[in-house]
Amino acid sequence: MRLEARDVKLLRYCLVFVWLATSLVSVIEWHGQSAELLRAAGMQQPALMDTLILGGAVVDALLGLALWLKPSRRVYLMALFMMVAMTVLASLLRPDLWLHPLGPLTKNVALAGLLWVLAIRTR
Question: Which residues form a coiled coil (predicted)?
């Protein structure tokens, strides 16, 4: 099956939404779910928690903007690398998220496949 240009564009915009929305939600929920996720992993240092939340939000925003404005094989591979790194980190901090019924980590398997297909298809 061959992906048409309009299909690639739709998939790319879906990824842009995921990354930008994740960045925005991380900031909106800074002292809510974002901090709770880290506290549930045993983290108690507010400065470190703030650094991790801000760092993750910035990385997500930059990747979302890069996917939107400068899509390329390199950008898809960077997004794939960061998604895998964040999934590994989340797995170490909160392995129970793999069993969550809404699949916050299991969905990353589909994202990895999508990013890989786009990366090998794009120059």
Answer: none
